[in-house]
Amino acid sequence: MDGGQFAALLVKHDRRLLRYILTLMPRRGDAEEVLQRTATALWEHFADYDPTRDFFPWAVRFAYFEVLNYRKEWARDRLVFRSEVLEELIDTRASLDGMLERRREALLVCLRQLVPQDVDLLRRRYCSPETIAMLARELDATAKTLYRRLDRIRERLEECVSRRVASSTAEEA
């Protein structure tokens, strides 16, 4: 396998790997650093990867060890989880992985069903540095109006995701 195949696999799974790492580390910046270290370790060991097997579980093992290594470096920091807590988080994350992935996929479908103005508001609120006050001024609305609108959008998304997950679970049974 070559560098292009590695890059394709990493790009496909990097956000999921970051979500996994974020369940084990309290700070996003630290998690992104560990993701970079994980990518480096994956590249160094890519010759050992068996392409007949799923990439994500293989990559998660590297992420796990990179989290442990990072924790050792920063062990004096009060925000580093104790080993028992970390193990509990890992076990919990593993048991929830399938459900979280189904919810994420359902959310993507539900987001596509929203009107473009609602998607734009969500993006601007959660994916940009704009504050509600800034958005309110730009959209000529009050902050309270935008909060209510965001609440309604989140409620619709939660209902849609719950319905989709329930129907997919029923289909699997």
Task: Measure the end-to-end span.
Answer: 38 Å
CATH architectural designation of the largest domain: Orthogonal Bundle
State the helicity in percent bands.
over 70%
Overall pLDDT: 88
Main sheet makeup: none
Gyration radius, to the nearest Å? 20 Å
Strand content: under 5%
Gist of the model:
The protein has seven helices and no strands. By secondary structure, it is mainly alpha-helical.
Characteristics of this structure?
Arc Repressor Mutant, subunit A; 173 residues; 7 helices; 2 domains
What can you see in these coordinates?
- This protein has 173 residues and is an all-alpha fold.
- It folds into 2 domains: 1-81, Rna Polymerase Sigma Factor, Chain: A (Orthogonal Bundle), CATH 1.10.1740; 99-173, Arc Repressor Mutant, subunit A, CATH 1.10.10.
- The protein has 7 helices and no strands.
- The protein has helices at 3-22, 28-44, 55-73, 83-113, 116-126, 132-139, 143-172.
- The longest helix is centred in the middle third of the chain and has 31 residues, at 83-113.
- The protein is globular.
- The protein starts with a helix and ends with a helix.
- The model has no long low-confidence stretch (mean pLDDT 88).
SSE map:
Elements lengths: L2 H20 L5 H17 L10 H19 L9 H31 L2 H11 L5 H8 L3 H30 L1
Helix pairs in contact: 1-2, 1-3, 2-3, 4-7, 6-7
